[in-house]
Amino acid sequence: MNEPKITVIVPIYKVEKYLVQCIDSILNQTLKDIEVILVDEGDLDACRYIIDHYEQTDSRVRTIHEKNGGYGASVNKGINIATGEYISIIESDDFIDPNMFKEVYDYAKSLDADVVKMPYFEYWDKTNYNDEKIQLCHWYAKTKNIPENCTFSIEEQPILVAIHPSIWSALYKTQYIKDKNIKCIEAKGAGYVDNHFRMQTLCQTNKIAWLKKPFNYYRLSNPEASATLYNIGTFIQRWADVHKLFEEKFPKKQESLSKYFIVEEWINTFCRLYRNEYFITKEQCDLLINNLSYIQKKDIEDSPVLKRREKTVLLQFKKYPERLKVYIDSNNIKNTSNYRTLYKLTFLGLDLLKIKAKNLYKWKIVLLGFIPFVLSKRKLL
Predict the structure, then answer these.
(1) Per-residue pLDDT, 338
(2) What are the start-end ranges of the H helices in the chain?
(3) Which residues pair with 122 in a beta bridge?
(4) How far apart are CA 210 and CA 170, in angstroms?
(5) Residue 67 neighbours by CB distance under 10 Å
(6) Which of 34, 40, 43 shows the shortest CA–CA distance to 61?
(7) Which residues of the chain have pLDDT under 70?
(8) DSSP class of residue 213?
(9) What is the pTM of this model?
């Protein structure tokens, strides 16, 4: 078999409800010269039988069955055996437009691009209560000034690190990925490894291209999706990995890009704490404070993508990092139905407040920038 134009890597885990639609949308592309690598992460559901059927009925399909390697490990396994000229990563609960590969491949070839990045559609399934919903990704307006029909470096278009990483809404030259030894972090589950992968692909080439046409349908109505099963501790760790990547491989790029990607880190971590949606452990808090230490005060002040209020809060956290120390005191957790847990607010090393949360209500701490704290009463769901 000749070298296929595109290798499509599909990490698969607990998506039997959506998998057929996903694979059909790949195999029914107008560009037929593709290789499809289906990586089953080993869950005991129908996915393994579905992908084995496709391997038996379509010679372009290859399957890998390995238990619980996680999303990053699945992507890496696909990259290791990819033979296509370009690589595409498709989420197994999403689906794509039938012309995607033909149009994006031709565009990449015409520009000799190492990476082609595109917007996408946000998609919600029809339910008993709501109609099917499709809309252009919420951040699209931020990219209106990115030029088409040319290539550029990330320093020239840094807005690309200030939007959703969406590593699946892109096409990558295989030789570039392998020459630069670009890999996903291998963490269990989805692991939010996309930001780290995104930074590697965008920071090592001056041949990035932007195509303003969306092709991917990003399903937001899957209750098992990583976007739904948010874990703040994992996000804090993944941003620590990003900062370490810049420190070790791209220190000069950190200086020019941090004022842009700080908005994604704000959304993923600091904003959740500011809105008081989550509590974190002391270890996670220390790591979060360390993450913030990589961002200079001037980068926050000069950021063109942060809102004024976001800058105020981040500058306050940076000036008074102990304000972030809202965490579960694990030594005092109550294991009865009457007491949910014990919370403690530490400010500048002093224990100011301890709170017991009882049956129906709990007190939560709200940090309001320059105001140290106020209390709000919120019903437990």
Answers:
(1) 35
(2) 19-27, 47-57, 70-81, 100-111, 174-179, 194-202, 232-249, 251-265, 271-274, 282-293, 297-302, 308-319
(3) 135, 218
(4) 9
(5) 9
(6) 34
(7) 1, 42-44, 68, 189-190, 225-229, 276-277, 323-381
(8) -
(9) 0.85
